[in-house]
Write a structure and sequence with these properties.
Elements lengths: L6 E6 L8 E6 L2 E5 L15 H9 L5 E6 L5 H4 L11 E3 L1 H20 L8 H6 L1 E2 L7 E3 L2 E8 L6 E8 L2 E5 L8 H15 L4 E5 L6 H5 L6 H14 L2 E6 L4 H9 L6 E4 L1 H14 L13 E3 L7 H4 L14 E3 L2 H7 L1 E5 L12 H6 L5 E5 L13 H7 L7 E3 L8 H11 L3 E5 L28 E3 L6
Parallel strand pairs: 3-4, 4-5, 5-6, 10-11, 11-19, 12-16, 12-17, 13-14, 13-16, 14-15, 17-18
Antiparallel strand pairs: 1-2, 1-20, 2-3, 7-8, 8-9, 9-10
Helix pairs in contact: 3-9, 7-8
Bound molecules: zinc ion.
Length: about 450
Amino acid sequence: MRYDMDGIRIYRGINQIGGIVTEIKKGDHRVLIDFGANLPGTENAELDDDELVKEVFSRQEVKTDAVLFTHYHGDHTGLKNRIPEDIPMYIGRIAKDIMKIIAKDADYVKIKNGQADKIETPVIDRMIPYWRAGEFKDLNGIRIMPLICDHSALDAYMFVIEMNGERILYTGDFRAHGIPGEKNFEKLVREKIGKVDILITEGTMVSRVKEEAVNPIRTEKDLKEKAAEIFSRHKENVVLVSSTNIDSVMGFYLATPRDKAFIVDPYQARVMMTAIEAKHKYFPDDYRYGNEIYVLCPNENDYCIKDLKEHMIPGTQRKPFHMARPDIYLDKGFVMLARPNRNPYVSTGKFEERLMAMKDPHIIYSMWTGYLKGGKAEDPSVVEFLKGYKPENIEVLHTSGHAYVEDLKKLMDMTCPDIIVPMHTESAAAFKEPELFADYSDKIVTLERGDMLGICSGLS
Ligand SMILES: [Zn+2]
């Protein structure tokens, strides 16, 4: 491994999805992008988390000026507690708010389990929100421009990096078929990125082409339309969706028919209103307060509504939340966003118990199918949640958080890179396979984990 030259090094995440850490180095300074944990179920991880931390921070001669997080998913931020305290960390302002909501419950569980040293809130509090998107900041000769992009996490970023006369696009996780992507992806690339010398791109979907070929849902818009159709046919709708996959959460909310109650737990209510408050100005049709939001309160005690007092319907002084009363919603019909309960100490919606009171719930599964029984990364809590329901009661309705191969091709066409470095994919070498990428096959460079892609000074 060479440490003396300038360039880009991917410490982890070339031939695996998640666990990402990338370094941009110039002289004796560097910037790190992401500091993620390996995803549960990662087979043949390139490096375990302890080895990774040791490798990244063992060299004292390089000064780390910043860690830039692309977004809040654990496979990009999961090892944040292991970053030395004197290194500034950056993340999107709204992403930080959402991380704090997530950490609140998780920290409570950790304290109960005697792991107070592992709590995350103080680390998130130290994170600095990005400077203005679309503007460069110079960090000792490494110029960085953050750009807000579309992903299944709200407030996600890609970066244009300029150093030694080269222009680099580091995509992070992105897609073009969510709410911001469908409207703005091409505009963003055309107006803010343009031609680059090096494209470092995620390639999750290159290893999921077959899976996606059988999915009739392409975009978040498709998902919302299909959800409306399903909700009108069934009285009791239970949707299993990731609480921070905001585009889908908003789609399910706004697809709920007027005559049915839309129900979430307090945690999901807080995440939703944080997203609406931050984004309704930019996407008024998709991030808006629609019908009433009913909140599941433990023991039907309204303290949980009082606890959400900081939230108001945007532009009004009215409160957005009402308490969900089982006798009313079971009678009226509903759409309930649910999650398997992984935390015995946290009063989440207790969804499994609530399902038992339902007569004929129709379950909409809106997560990656790999978590299902027999899937690539079977998740025992998902399997347990769905146990006992017949296949005809479960419907898969999901769209990926990652760019389709067609959109990766579009990005290549629009940025005209001389070098393409794939990462965040099961096999970087497989990037040379899609027929669509044929024009670029001689530009695709598959790095070895930990190797430096040199960007020589003096070439400019
Ligand atoms: Zn992600």
